[in-house]
Amino acid sequence: MSANQSVQGIESPFSFHLPTDVQFGVGSASRLGEMLLSMGVRRVFLVTDQGVRQAGLLDGVIHSLEEKGLHFQIYADVEPDPSLETIQAGAAMFQQQSFDCMVAIGGGSPIDTAKGIRVLAANGGGIGQYAGVNRVPAASAIPLIAIPTTSGTGSEVTIFGVYSDWENHVKITVTSPHMAPSTALIDPALTLSLPAKMTAATGIDALAHGIETFFSLRSSPASDALAIHAMKMIAPQLRRAVRDGADMEARIGMSQGSVLAGMAFNNGFLGLAHAIGSALSGHCHVPHGVAIGLLLPHVVAFNTPVRLEKAELIADVLGSVQKETGTAAELVGQLVRDIGLPQRLQEVGVPEAKLVDIAKDSFKSGMMKWNPRLPTEQEVLELLQKAF
After folding, report:
1. What percent of the chain lies above the pLDDT cut of 90?
2. Is 2 inside a domain boundary?
3. Contacts of 382 (CB under 8 A, 6+ apart)
4. What is the spatial distance between Cα 265 and Cα 183, in angstroms, rounded to a whole number?
């Protein structure tokens, strides 16, 4: 990058906002009850899913609440890529009693569900009516504590909630500062039991958050710094965490990288991989992280000509970790292979006949406008065909 470009970047105005308090540390989730008691909380609405429950990840949290004499109600009917109906049902349960705090424990689905429930509790209606940017009229007085059990979505620190409108085969995104959790309580120990496939899928999503934010038209010196550091942490630790889930050092690194990437895209926003991924999951129910892994190498290649210096920096970061040379797209593709994710859409049951509809519906995503190279519908279709 030339000196002139560096000066221009420094002079360019930007803003950075993180409304969520971040508490990070191994074992921190076991202190939840103590934290809530100090806040004056007595009644807790706990949002999770059956996978978290069956894995025993609720046990320590529940013990912490019971130890401090706190009443709690569990809503565990959250599915992957939560539907509009799931948010509505959770809001109805929440409103049946008087709660003074909400806690979400799990991956992005339970955390996004809790965000949506809290919005409906404060504003009424259905979550679909708040789709878009800054359409949530009022904040909730109910604090939301988000406890992630994966290292990927970054939902514990973001102003976004993503929900599935299965009737229309699309995902909708609610974007508002009123969506952000009050506190992110990040305990890497909770990720130790995450299976290798889930570690890979959520981890590549976290890396994509760093890469897409770095490429984004809305990127800034602050989001760039977070994105670069997130990539530096995720690339080596993701391989280790997939290979050995009990590797605490790798789990700590992934948890740190994921939250930094979440902070980055909370301000810099995402791009083409997530726009297409949203349509792909909406039409074919491909898990989000798997969809991102399939698309990311092709999107990086597509964006490289208009962000050449940034692509070279990504290649430097990944190459130094992988001890290989190559373009950013090639090195991302190598990482996807190394962690065992699918590399072709046909491997995950996507019919070729669906590609035209997926390409068309990619443009329904607000993330498309932040991609540094705005594609045509035909170019998105060609990208999908390359990934097929």
Report:
1. 91
2. no
3. none
4. 18
Co-location of 30 and 176 in the same domain? yes
- Mean pLDDT, the chain, whole residue set: 94
Whether the predicted pLDDT of 80 surpasses 70: yes
pTM: 0.92
Domain count, the chain: 2
Q: How far from each other are the two terminal CA atoms of the chain, in whole angstroms? A: 35
CA separation for the pair 263, 268 (Å, rounded) = 9
Owner of token pair 């990040």: 186
Regarding beta strands 160-165 and 144-148, do their DSSP bridges make them parallel or antiparallel, or are they unpaired? unpaired
Element spanning 303, H or E: helix 288-303
Question: How many angstroms separate the CA atoms of 209 and 264, rounded?
Answer: 8
Q: Which sign does the torsion angle of CA 20, 21, 22, 25 carry?
A: negative
Residue 380 token pair: 């998105």
Residue written as token pair 């309580």: 185
Instruction: Say how far residue 49 (Cα) sits from the centre of its chain.
Output: 17
